[in-house]
Design a protein that fits this description.
The protein is built from 15 helices and 15 strands. By secondary structure, the chain is of the alpha/beta class. The protein has a seven-stranded mixed β-sheet with strand order 12-11-10-9-13-14-15. Strands 1, 2, 3, 4, 5 and 6 form a six-stranded mixed β-sheet that branches. Strands 7-8 form a two-stranded antiparallel ribbon. α1 packs across α14 and α7 packs across α12.
């Protein structure tokens, strides 16, 4: 673990106050009795954005935390939209999952038509939610924003062209979030003058976000020494062949162990959290790092690719040890920022334009935060929250115009 020249004074940064969400809705599926939630944290110009997740044990508190995080993401990246989140307490591998998701979206139709732009999240890949929207007669999961355009059909075609553009590592819409996480890591390395070629990375979760981050970091020359999925951790101190491993994933983001080279160590799933590396990227589930396990972390920087990956107690404990935790609403905000740049016409279907814009934005945001932070003054999240709170008034009267 690298320590750099970071101070450990005892002062504390005060978190800004957190107002109540605008709206909480609890839904019960009439067929399976599954419970789902929609939380609208903030509205800007009558709209909010945030994905819909599906996992066993999903709670209202979890969805509320995620919705608050979406508000922070949109503020951090100066997007003209508020924050919301959907969640369903159901196993996405259950054969009834698509039907449950469709009934949830149908029940939320008044919000999806006019106020809530949703997208993929844990357990709900983009193609699944888009298929549900198509069956319900909506153009795509960005439906509410697209319908505000002067020519919704033309806007829908432009958005789909961007989502389906081929980029290094996969379709642009699938990889852009992971690319943003990779750039957050590179921005931190640049801030501390670390040579990327000498940096090591451990990644928990190799789905859309974690897999994309691992792919792009490997592509830059960083050594990805560990990746973990539901089946366990794969470890090689000499560096894993990330593209080859990702090519074996199934639809649930799990690597085919029959195609893993024999020299790669197969370890328990949670071992990845304690791997000695410069960067740890939790990209699997919320609350992966807790007060009970954060002392295992041996990385110098934690970059949150998953939403709410670190609990407040764990984050404070890590900061006290000099570990920077780049918060989710900065590190993984590339996907939502890019989606709105695409909707607003700031980028199109040329991947390099999107990569250039996101790289510049992520380096600016992460660099600004790291330059303003000392671990003894609290968490990096506290610094970021103060910055986003200062932008709330500026966005209050924003009008969304979708071309």
């Amino acid at each position: 673990m690298r320590t750099g020249n970071r101070s450990t004074s005892a002062a504390a940064v005060t978190h800004p106050s957190r107002p109540e969400p605008i709206m909480r809705i609890e839904w019960t599926d009439p067929v399976t009795h599954t419970v789902g939630y929609l939380v609208v944290d903030t509205l800007v110009s009558g709209m909010a954005t945030g994905g819909t997740r599906m996992r066993p044990g999903c709670t209202l508190t979890e969805v509320e935390d995620l919705a608050r995080g979406m508000s922070a993401k949109t503020a951090m990246f100066d997007l003209p939209i508020g924050g919301a989140k959907g969640g369903i307490d159901f196993d996405p591998k259950d054969p009834r999952a698509d039907e449950v998701l469709e009934r949830f979206c149908d029940a939320m139709r008044p919000f999806l038509d006019r106020h809530w732009v949703t997208a993929e999240d844990l357990g709900v890949p983009q193609h699944r939610i888009d298929a549900v929207f198509a069956r319900l007669g909506m153009r795509q999961s960005y439906h509410a924003a697209i319908e505000r355009a002067a020519d919704p059909q033309r806007t829908a075609e432009r958005v789909m062209a961007g989502l389906c553009a081929h980029a290094p590592g996969g379709l642009l819409g699938d990889v852009i979030g992971g690319y943003g996480v990779a750039q957050a890591c590179l921005a931190a390395a640049q801030n501390w003058n670390w040579d990327p070629a000498r940096c090591t990375v451990a990644v928990q979760g190799v789905g859309t976000m974690g897999g994309g981050a691992a792919w792009y970091l490997h592509d830059t020359g960083m050594k990805v020494v560990a990746v973990a999925d539901a089946a366990g951790t794969l470890f090689d101190p000499a560096g894993l062949d990330v593209p080859a491993l990702l090519d074996t994933r199934d639809e649930y983001g799990e690597i085919d162990r029959t195609r893993v080279p024999a020299h790669v160590e197969r370890l328990p799933r949670d071992v990845v959290l304690g791997v000695e590396a410069d960067f740890l990227i939790p990209a699997a589930v919320s609350y992966a790092l807790t007060e009970a396990n954060c002392d295992q972390v041996r990385a110098s920087v934690v970059v949150e690719a998953a939403n709410a990956a670190t609990t407040p107690h764990a984050e404070a404990a890590l900061a006290a040890r000099g570990v920077a935790v780049v918060p989710d609403f900065v590190a993984n905000a590339g996907a939502v920022a890019w989606a709105w740049w695409l909707l607003l016409g700031y980028v199109g279907s040329e991947p390099q334009d999107s990569f250039d814009r996101l790289r510049a934005a992520m380096h600016d945001k992460v660099g600004t935060l790291l330059r303003a932070w000392q671990p003894g003054t609290g968490t990096l999240r506290a610094v970021a929250e103060l910055l986003t709170a200062s932008k709330a008034h500026e966005r209050a009267n924003t009008t969304i115009t979708v071309p």
